[in-house]
Amino acid sequence: MNPARFVLRLVGLGVGALVLIPAAAILALIALGVLGVLIGGAIAIGILVLKVMLVVLVLSWLARTAFGWSRPRSRKPILVGPPIAEVRAPLSPRRDKYDIAAERELDEELGL
After folding, report:
1. pTM of the model
2. pLDDT digit string, tens, across residues 36-64
3. DSSP run (H or E) holding 83
4. DSSP 85
């Protein structure tokens, strides 16, 4: 290799480093600034959306209260008192001898 070319490449590398490193630092600072502005804008938009949702919720509540609008209540019957008949749970395939013994002991205590 020619020593003159080596020196020229070394000088070019040094000049490139002197130019590119500050430029990269400046670009990184610009990117951080843009990122901060974007995050700040997203937070501001999120707060605005939450405020709008709160106003809509309050207006909805006021309208339901003022005009008597409400959701229909469930008309399912409410069971009161002891059950008419006891129904055993279906047998599961994972029962082992301990489960079976416990059930037998319980049946004996209950007199079944």
Report:
1. 0.45
2. 999 999 999 999 999 999 999 999 999 98
3. none
4. S
